[in-house]
Specification:
The chain is built from 15 helices and 13 strands. With 398 residues, the chain is an alpha/beta fold. The strands form 4 sheets. A 7-stranded parallel β-sheet has the order 4-7-8-9-10-11-12. A two-stranded antiparallel ribbon has the order 1-13. A two-stranded antiparallel sheet has the order 2-3. Strand 2 and strand 3 form a beta hairpin. The longest helix is centred in the middle third of the chain and has 25 residues. It starts with 5 loop residues before the first strand and ends with a strand. The relative contact order is 0.17.
């Protein structure tokens, strides 16, 4: 009796050192130069209908995994640092249409990723919900009046993005025209529990004592707050999609602070509610969920109904692939401090474990401050030099 398994592999351009031992078909696309050094493969042609990232998410045949990086527009880029000197306030940079567009396009112009994500913050919606905040250099987010009581939650207003954050919609519309379907324009929002953690803790936290006290001592108060965020974020996603976003990522930044049973009570129902609500009006909009510390939640994340689960680097990609149909990630951001050969090998390992189809290559978290820009250029060069080959003639027989 003969049983046959098809094997899929990726080959990379001859300029890189592949970790694979399989034969290669080299990518010989033209190259474009990067200001940080190195070259990046130029896309073969503009996809007039769907960007590569959307094709991959929807299960279409693609020649390589699409690639973009979380926080790809940011502090590691010299061009961004120069803008920060002129506009030192993060909110000034993230709430000005021209600056949002310029910063969002900085990595696109240099690296040509397959996803161009809006430059913004998950807390951007708070001002429109009557929750004053700021993002202060060196300190991070600061909530001026932290929430902790029923009366506090009752003061939280319904979020109307058209009125509160029109610059987000304007920026997305411009980005969609600028990118012109050569990549997918990505929007993003914060998950209800992540947003609640910030507004209850008063900012970032090391032990999350305040949000957990509220969860375990006064759960009704927390649930009321989470419900307001769930309703608001569903509206925000629809607004971003209507403005030009072709996919939206939901960041559940502090999911790692919840035990599985608490995730099922304080995060999962609200994430599912967001997905269900959005899919009623935008059934074809891909939704990506990134949950930090997702290793203990692998079986639960698909229950949200999202189209793609983005894994952090603590999860073995092979384990993630066995549990999820479509995945994103998950190279350790610290790898970008390594040698170019090391970066190449980690990309190959991740892609090999992810297998064929429905994989978006990304980091397992945002790029770290101080990451060498030339290493980011190398990451994209190798990632965009990958080429999928289905070895239909290679069979494992027994």
């Amino acid at each position: 009796m003969m049983s046959c398994n098809y094997t899929s592999v990726y080959s990379i351009s001859p300029s890189s050192k592949s970790a694979f031992t399989s034969p290669s078909i080299f990518n010989v696309n033209p190259k474009i130069c990067c200001s940080a050094g190195g070259t990046i493969a130029e896309p073969k042609a503009i996809n007039a209908t769907e960007p590569l990232l959307l094709d991959a998410v929807r299960g279409k045949d693609v020649e390589r995994p699409p690639v973009w990086l979380m926080r790809q527009a940011g502090r590691y880029m010299k061009s961004y640092q120069l803008l920060c000197e002129k506009y030192p306030s993060f909110r000034d940079r993230s709430e000005n249409v021209d600056l949002v567009v310029e910063i969002s396009l900085q990595p696109w112009k240099v690296f040509r990723p397959d996803g161009v994500i809006l430059f913004s913050d998950i807390l951007t919606s708070l001002s429109g919900m009557n929750i004053p905040f700021d993002i202060i250099k060196g300190n991070g987010p600061v909530i001026f009046d932290p929430l902790g009581t029923t009366a506090d939650v009752e003061k939280v207003k319904e979020f109307i993005p058209e009125e509160s954050v029109p610059y987000v919609g304007e920026a997305l519309t411009i980005l969609r025209k600028e990118v012109n379907n050569q990549a997918a324009v990505l929007g993003f929002v914060g998950a209800p529990f992540a947003l609640a953690s910030y507004v209850v803790e008063g900012g970032s936290s090391k032990n999350f004592a305040k949000i957990k006290r509220l969860a375990f001592a006064e759960p009704k108060v927390l649930h009321a707050l989470l419900q307001k965020f769930a309703t608001s974020m569903a509206k925000y996603i629809r607004y971003q999609a209507d403005s030009g976003a072709q996919a939206v990522q939901i960041f559940d930044s502090w999911a790692t602070e919840l035990s599985p049973v608490d995730f099922e009570e304080f995060s999962l129902p609200y994430l599912k509610q967001i997905v269900d609500s959005v899919k009623l009006t935008h059934p074809d909009l891909p939704l990506i969920l990134y949950a930090s510390g997702s290793g203990g939640l692998l079986e639960r994340l698909p229950l949200t109904g999202v189209d793609v689960v983005s894994l952090d680097w603590t999860v073995d990609m092979a384990d993630g692939r066995r549990r999820h149909v479509a995945i994103q990630g998950n190279v350790d951001p610290g790898v970008l401090f390594g040698s170019k050969e090391f970066i190449t090998n980690r990309i190959n390992d991740t892609v090999k474990k992810a297998g064929k189809g429905k994989h978006i290559l990304n980091l397992g978290h945002g790029i770290k401050v101080g990451t060498p820009e030339e290493n980011v250029a190398h990451f994209f060069e190798i990632a965009k030099g990958l080429k999928l080959i289905l070895w239909s003639s290679i069979l494992t027989c027994s």
